[in-house]
């Protein structure tokens, strides 16, 4: 009998009415475990526990919160290999990428262990004689965190750590496809001494758990990462409930390559940004916008490098690209590949691979235009549209012609082009001679337009979302 991994509510491991299998996308015979699927009643219990525990957590010495986060970070550091293997099995990332993500989660907890002690405030002179003014930041209360499957330990970490650092209590709902890493995080926080009720884990379907969190009157804020469609629904629900909301959604990120680029560097940069992590990153380079003077040579070299990528078992150290996360996701990718042909593209690669598991060869769409659906809609797989433009000015215009605005990049050896692109790109993050995917944890993460709504994540700026501002006046006489 396979053990059921239970929800974590009010410091106890709690059964749910149903459980779901968590199987590896690289090998359907690999059963990672059975994980509880909760419902609205479990959300009610978790929110009640969080509401009861939050005042003491917020009122404790900041050293108490710092110590819990530090111990959690140290435990994650000690378990990087273990966490990386679990992540590779349940999500499909290569083992090296999975270990890197686990390491990032550890660093996030250690970073916010320090930020606990640096929550800022101000004391200002009043315009009135004898009056003092103090501006402080206070926790919001109970925060609901809804996380996706593509970064199943890093994103729960970069939401949970600053939320707890600010003095909030948390109810975490991880993606239904990848509950294992979040369940392990709950175990680590319990072992690190997080007080009962301060951190709660409720696993299950987003349509049930997410909706219950958004609609709960005692949840003060929601932080969500996922699709634009779901994010818009959450935004409407939070507006109705007057909740603070933070959304990180999709991207259709451009990478511009000009004639001034180092060709080998440009190919390596686009290969990484478009296809690594199986293209399952909201920051992936899904539009490669190349000037005419270098287009043909770039296309030939990129197609050859892409075709040489080793797709296979994520636990094999020789593998460069693992499986797609699920059969449903793979079916969607294949539909877009068929659409690319229908829209007039020449497709290189993209076929389903003849092996057990959800494996797909990476795909390059030659002859794409920015008006095509495959150039405008997020595919979220190892697929990239190659768009030919006349010059830098057209490249910049095409790069900005999207409802999204998460990440953008340029490969160029021209300081003028790099400077202009950084200044005029309408994205929240801009990369020069670097992949559009790949960011640091100590600086803000987020975009514009349909990509993001609300405060930035990561870095010190994350604390802005998880706190509210209070201005206090005192007449000193």
Question: How many helices?
Answer: 15
Residue-averaged pLDDT: 97
Largest sheet strand order: 15-16-17-14-13-19-20
Kindly report the name of the CATH homologous superfamily of the largest domain.
Aldehyde Dehydrogenase, Chain A, domain 1
State Rg: 23 Å
Give me the secondary-structure category. alpha/beta
**Helix fraction bin:** 25-40%
Q: Please state the overall shape, judged from the principal axes of the Cα atoms.
A: globular
Ends distance: 72 Å
Name of the top-level CATH class of the largest domain: Alpha Beta
Note the main sheet.
7 strands, mixed
List the helices and strands and how they pair.
Layout: E1 4-5, E2 7-9, E3 12-14, E4 18-24, E5 27-37, H1 40-59, H2 62-78, H3 80-91, H4 95-115, E6 122-125, E7 131-139, E8 142-146, H5 154-165, E9 169-173, H6 180-191, E10 199-201, H7 206-215, E11 221-225, H8 228-241, E12 244-248, E13 253-257, H9 263-275, E14 285-291, H10 292-307, H11 327-342, E15 346-349, E16 363-368, H12 373-376, E17 383-389, H13 392-400, E18 404-405, E19 407-411, H14 415-424, E20 429-432, E21 448-449, E22 452-453, H15 462-465, E23 467-475
Parallel strand pairs: 1-5, 8-9, 8-11, 9-10, 11-12, 13-14, 13-19, 14-17, 16-17, 19-20
Antiparallel strand pairs: 2-3, 4-5, 6-7, 7-23, 12-22, 15-16, 18-21
Helix pairs in contact: 1-7, 2-4, 2-6, 3-4, 4-5, 9-10
């Amino acid at each position: 009998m396979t053990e059921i991994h239970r929800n974590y509510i009010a410091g106890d491991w709690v059964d749910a009415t149903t459980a779901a299998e968590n199987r590896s996308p690289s090998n359907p015979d690999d059963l990672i475990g059975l994980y509880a699927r909760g419902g609205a009643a479990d959300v009610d219990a978790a929110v009640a526990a969080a509401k009861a525990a939050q005042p003491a957590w917020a009122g404790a010495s900041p050293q108490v919160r710092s110590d819990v986060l530090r111990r959690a970070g140290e435990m994650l550091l000690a378990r990087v290999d273990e966490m990386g293997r679990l992540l590779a099995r349940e999500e499909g990332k290569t083992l090296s990428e999975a270990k890197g993500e686990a390491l990032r989660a550890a660093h996030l907890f250690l970073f916010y262990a320090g930020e606990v002690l640096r929550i800022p405030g101000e004391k200002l002179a009043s315009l009135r004689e004898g009056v003092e003014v103090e501006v402080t930041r206070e926790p919001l209360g109970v925060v609901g965190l809804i996380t996706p499957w593509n970064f199943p330990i890093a994103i729960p970490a970069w939401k949970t750590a600053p939320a707890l650092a600010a003095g909030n209590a948390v109810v975490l709902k991880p993606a239904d496809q990848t509950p294992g890493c979040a369940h392990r995080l709950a175990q680590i926080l319990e072992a690190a001494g997080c007080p009962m009720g301060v951190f709660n884990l409720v696993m299950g379907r987003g349509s049930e758990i997410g909706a219950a969190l958004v609609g709960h009157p005692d949840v003060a804020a929601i932080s969500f990462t996922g699709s634009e469609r779901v994010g818009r629904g959450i935004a409407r629900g939070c507006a109705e409930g007057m909740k603070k909301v933070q959304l990180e959604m999709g991207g259709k990120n451009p990478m511009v390559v000009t004639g001034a680029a180092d060709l080998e560097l440009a190919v390596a940069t686009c290969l990484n940004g478009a296809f690594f992590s199986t293209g399952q990153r909201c920051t992936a380079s899904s539009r490669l916008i190349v000037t005419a003077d270098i287009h043909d040579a770039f296309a030939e070299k990129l197609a050859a490098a892409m075709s040489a990528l080793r797709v296979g078992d994520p636990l094999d150290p020789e593998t460069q690209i693992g499986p797609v996360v699920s059969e449903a996701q793979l079916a969607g990718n294949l539909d877009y590949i068929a659409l690319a042909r229908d829209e007039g593209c020449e497709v290189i690669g993209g076929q389903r691979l003849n092996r057990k598991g959800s494996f797909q060869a990476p795909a390059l769409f030659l002859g794409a235009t920015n008006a095509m659906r495959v150039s405008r809609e997020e595919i979220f797989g190892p697929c990239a549209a190659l768009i030919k433009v006349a010059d830098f000015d057209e490249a910049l215009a095409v790069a900005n012609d999207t409802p999204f605005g998460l990440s953008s990049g340029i490969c160029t050896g021209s300081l003028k082009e790099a400077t202009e692109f950084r200044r005029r790109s309408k994205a929240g993050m801009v990369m020069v001679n670097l992949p559009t995917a790949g960011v640091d944890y100590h600086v803000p993460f987020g975009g514009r337009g349909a990509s993001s709504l609300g405060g930035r994540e990561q870095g010190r700026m994350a604390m802005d979302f998880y706190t509210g501002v209070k201005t206090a006046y005192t007449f000193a006489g």
